[in-house]
Amino acid sequence: MRDPYTILGVSKTASVSDIKKAYRKLAKQYHPDQNKDAKAAAKFAEINSAYEIVGDEKKRGQFDRGEIDAEGKPRFQGFENQAAGGPGGFAQDGGYEFNFGGGRGGFAGGGFDDILSEMFGARANRRGGRESAPRGSDLQATAHVPFSVWALGGKIRVELAPGRVVDAFIPAGIAPGKNVRLKGQGEPGPFGGEPGDALLTVAVDPHEQFRADGKNIRVDVNVTIYEAALGAKVRVPTLDGSVDLTLPAGTTGLRSFRLKGKGVQVREGAGDLIVQPRIIMPDKIPADLEAALLKLRDEGYDPGR
């Protein structure tokens, strides 16, 4: 790494307050939340490393005396007879030890995590250190959700990128166009930072039978003319199987039937399945049926049009 004074743009005789002021200015300029340039993250990490040296009174002194390098690593000083336990001295057991003092974050005038927290809030505090590198980018993808999965809720497989497939849970009834966030499934963070998220835009595939109506679902059911006229039990498809529906005699296409709780299974309360009969005439009307219909017409039957 380059000379930390040069990185921060201060002289070796700069005061503690001047060093802190220079660091604040540069950190604000190159922080990844403020600067989207591809090289900003590397510059930001370099600034943090420089301040870790010259922003700490003990480490600054050790660097100025040549005891540590610009990365905080000890420089070999030889085996001069210095006081035991001092920088580069002999330990009491005869072994050689380096005692540089001052842990990370023990900077004069406050650590750089504190400074970043002042400027950018708690999020920057979590990410401000050299180990806490910038967060990765979010990924965008479209989730094509089968109608039944959308209505009932469940898991689907989504391709985030070529060769990269994940399982995603789709909550029942989520509005099309809304996003489902998959934490940590985005791009990896540079310098070992936390990964971004995957944002899935929901697109609901149409169904051949069912239609959404808010949290209700509508379905058309074919009914013969005699079933409608005389009454009958007919099979009705639902999202989780078929059920029998009893049609009363005289059922018309103007009347619908409601199956409670068979609609979209939203958390606030399931919707209903609305069944709409579709009365189907035979291709060829038998003579006796034709005669009955003609008689009905001649008697002046009025449907109320």
From TrEMBL:
Annotated TM spans: none
Question: CDD domains, alphabetically?
Answer: DnaJ (cd06257), DnaJ_C (cd10747)
Pfam family for this entry, one: DnaJ
Instruction: Please name the InterPro entries in this protein's record.
Output: DnaJ_C (IPR002939), DnaJ_domain (IPR001623), HSP40/DnaJ_pept-bd (IPR008971), J_dom_sf (IPR036869)
What is the protein named? DnaJ-class molecular chaperone
Species for this entry: Labrys monachus
Q: Domain (J): give its ranges.
A: 3-67
Name the PROSITE patterns for this protein.
DNAJ_2
Give the UniProt keywords, A-Z.
Chaperone
